[in-house]
Amino acid sequence: MIYRFTRGEGQAGIHSLSDGASLSWKPAPGPQTKGKAKVCWSSALIIPSAPVASSPPPAGQPRNCSRTGWGPERGADISNPLSFGCSTYCRLATPPRRQRAMARVLIVGAGLTGSLCAALLRKAATRPLHLAVWDKAGDSGGRMTTASSPHNPQSTVDLGAQYITCTPHYAKEHQSFYDELLAPGVLKPLTSPIEGMVIKEGDCNFVAPHGVSSIINHYLKESGADVYFRQCVTQINLRNDKWEVLRETGSPEQFDIAVLTMPAPQILQLQGDIVNLISECQRQQLESVSYSSRYALGLFYEAGTKIDVPWAGQYITSNPCIRFISIDNKKRNIESSEIGPSLVIHTTVSFGVTYLEHSTEDVQELILQQLENILPGLPQPVATKCQKWRHSQVTNAAANSPGQMTLHLKPFLVCGGDGFTQSNFDGCITSALCVLEALKDHI
Ligand SMILES: Cc1cc2nc3c(=O)[nH]c(=O)nc-3n(C[C@H](O)[C@H](O)[C@H](O)COP(=O)(O)OP(=O)(O)OC[C@H]3O[C@@H](n4cnc5c(N)ncnc54)[C@H](O)[C@@H]3O)c2cc1C
């Protein structure tokens, strides 16, 4: 079998696998990537040293909509993936572990769900795993993206998620996740004043001092996955019991398992065999996922600029365009004479919907006009970044598919993301745990 996998640039070698097979590789040219991603593809040849045991008969298509098949069992607890009926079914279809070879796993989406899926799958894997994460964007984060000023990369704004609210329920349920991020300082308690924020008893709020995308980068690093940006997946086909995944640029790649973590409408846009693999019932469930839309505008100022307000963030209730403003560095307790302040504005959903198809340049102008009414006399920013969030926050999650939706077994094709739970940190954790539960006996 010829596999393709990544390895340090220019290296070649031979490696023994845990199942007794050996793996040899040689350098080969491959797709160019940016940032943290590794850039060199190599061809690898897997030479089995012992006969491979035949797998159990194909488990066939999942019956996603049925109570007795893959839907949640009656009384299932959304936060506890172990309470879902699917886990029993997955275990029955498990091939013996000892003789399984390396699995190639693709995760589409380098947002919170995708990055956490990668980290969880890596931890749970009982065999060599080649993990790849592809994202159509130029950087990690998804809706937890942090933009930098082109003049000073240390001046940043969170364009999507602003802070993380941990309820008493999730403080217990997801304690290990919070601990893991609090210990190295990826998350810190939110101490700056946010005017108009609704604080419920027992809730704790956290910010990411290095920007909210540092959470995603933490998980991507932990996963050891090969992360490729500007890889827009367009088609998914079934070829010899593997997923052949096509992207806008670059050659198709084959994977044993694929996990899709993009918003539901973007899953429905994919072409190829996937179109016919989605059952009518699953299609309806995916179509039922709805999102709000809004814009975010990031403004970067010169070092030394003073923005003289007594708050770090403010919810606005009296403006048709602006819903939220944050002095982003102040929100994260970063005030320095060398780094200019940064500000982020979120529009109202009604403004977002009205101007959804307008150009971001026009929308930016309208937001700046309204900002002048709220904060008159602000200096000129040195750089701006206007972001359209067509799929901002989930207003209606997929019915009857808490956490994940398994589109196909053997090979596995699973969807996850906040569209199957709720639009926040804990929603994404819940979804990633459900994806893990569906796949854990197969990795
Ligand atoms: C304005 C705003 C404010 C928010 N505020 C908060 C908050 O304060 N607190 C909070 O907890 N949550 C907040 N949220 C919600 C939170 O950001 C999301 O719930 C979470 O980021 C969703 O993560 P995800 O990984 O499921 O999806 P995403 O972050 O959307 O990740 C999906 C990824 O898939 C990629 N992708 C899509 N299609 C393709 C394709 N065809 N090929 C390759 N890649 C593709 C996208 O580029 C994206 O990176 C906010 C969201 C927004 C937009």
TrEMBL record:
- Keyword presence, Flavoprotein: yes
Q: Which domain of life is it from?
A: Eukaryota
One GO molecular function term of this record is: oxidoreductase activity, acting on NAD(P)H
Which Gene3D superfamilies does UniProt cross-reference here? 3.90.660.10, FAD/NAD(P)-binding domain (3.50.50.60)
Indicate whether Flavoprotein appears among the record's keywords: yes
Region ranges (Disordered): 1-30, 51-72
The record's InterPro entries line, in alphabetical order, gives: Amino_oxidase (IPR002937), FAD/NAD-bd_sf (IPR036188), RNLS (IPR040174)
Q: Which Pfam families match?
A: Amino_oxidase, NAD_binding_8
Residues annotated as domain Amine oxidase: 206-403
Q: Identify one Gene Ontology CC term for this UniProt entry.
A: extracellular region
Which keywords does this Swiss-Prot/TrEMBL entry list?
A: FAD, Flavoprotein
Q: Which residues cross the membrane?
A: none
The name this protein carries in UniProt is Renalase
Please tell me the species this chain comes from.
Neophocaena asiaeorientalis asiaeorientalis (Yangtze finless porpoise)
Q: Which gene encodes it?
A: RNLS
